[in-house]
Design a protein that fits this description.
The protein is α+β, with helices and mostly antiparallel strands and 175 residues long. It has one domain. Helices cover 49% and strands 23% of the residues. The protein has 8 helices and 6 strands. Strands 4-3-2-5-1-6 form a 6-stranded antiparallel beta sheet. The longest helix is centred in the middle third of the chain and has 17 residues. About 8% of the residues have low confidence. Keywords: Membrane, Transmembrane, Transmembrane helix.
Length: 175
């Protein structure tokens, strides 16, 4: 799958169980051949604003190489400050700074407080933009959905920085 035309698809949920259910439905749709997902996570934000990154259900993404492979990129594109709070390494920090600057200049990206307010959850996926409508439809239990174009160059640079720093990121997450 190419990464030339990418979209960030986000579904926001008041109910964490509904987010997990839609995540599973999203993965099932991919398995059935309805679309291809580059990366997807479930984010849960507690009432105090602390965010947990989960793949689905109770299985945390913050352990092992799975974080470096896809979840970190998805989180970084959705909300650079969430990844910056966890990630270490100058390469990741520089890329996150560029993404943040691009969002401010180009008015793209997603408002974290709108789509992941305290006490809510979100399913966040990165897909080829040709699949964005199908993926949005798979998030049927969400209270609101959005699909936004993302910069493929940002994706590739962030993926590479996380891949190069995966051991440091995993160590920081697990500490």
């Amino acid at each position: 799958m190419g990464t030339e035309n990418l979209a960030l698809v986000v579904g926001s949920y008041d109910d964490t169980a509904a987010a997990s259910d839609d995540y599973k439905a999203l993965r099932n749709g991919q398995d059935a051949g309805g679309y291809e997902i580059i990366g997807a996570v479930v984010l849960v934000r507690d009432k105090d604003g602390k965010v947990q990154v989960k793949e689905h259900g109770d299985r945390s993404v913050g352990k092992g190489a799975a974080w470096g492979a896809g979840a970190g990129v998805v989180v970084g594109l959705f909300a650079p400050p969430l990844l910056a709070a966890t990630a270490v390494g100058a390469g990741i920090g520089a890329i996150l700074g560029k993404i943040k600057k691009n969002r401010e200049e180009k008015q793209f990206g997603v408002d974290v407080d709108e789509y992941l307010a305290p006490g809510t959850s979100a399913v966040v996926a990165v897909v080829d933009d040709r699949w964005a409508d199908n993926v949005e439809k798979a998030l049927q239990r969400s209270d609101k959905r959005i699909s936004k174009a993302i910069d493929a160059d940002d994706y590739e640079k962030l993926r590479k920085a996380i891949e190069d720093s995966a051991d440091d990121v995993v160590e920081q997450i697990n500490s």
